[in-house]
Amino acid sequence: MSENETSSVKSLYTQVKALNGSNGHMVMKGIYHDNKATAVISVYNDVKPSHMVLDELWDWIDNTEANNELDAEVRMLLMDKIRYIEDDLTFMND
């Protein structure tokens, strides 16, 4: 990491710890002049990173053998909603 990147991560870490928070993020939209590209730097404090939580949730929903708790319709609704949220780029306009 460059000195500037290290400084940004340390600043974010310091803020999360000072606030006794569980996480903090820096979002950089439109990186390298690409309006569809986003970079995120995250600091997690004593919690699992959200992308890992989402991956586990997706696997749980998709695992039909171990997942008799959800019927097929609910499973499809959840998977469709996750895909919809993932594809929704309206945050780029904020």
Protein traits:
alpha+beta
What is the total tally of β strands? 2
Low-confidence stretches at least 5 residues in length (pLDDT < 50)? none
What letter string, H or E per element, gives the SSE order?
HEEHH
The largest sheet has its strands arranged as: 1-2
Distance between the termini: 28 Å
Radius of gyration based on Cα positions = 17 Å
Mean pLDDT: 87
| Strand fraction | 5-15%
Amount of helix: 40-55%
Description:
The protein is α+β, with helices and mostly antiparallel strands and 94 residues long. The protein contains three helices and two strands. A two-stranded antiparallel ribbon has the order 1-2. Strand 1 and strand 2 form a beta hairpin. The longest helix has 16 residues, at 3-18. It is extended.
Write the layout of secondary structure elements.
Elements: H1 3-18, E1 23-29, E2 38-44, H2 50-62, H3 72-87
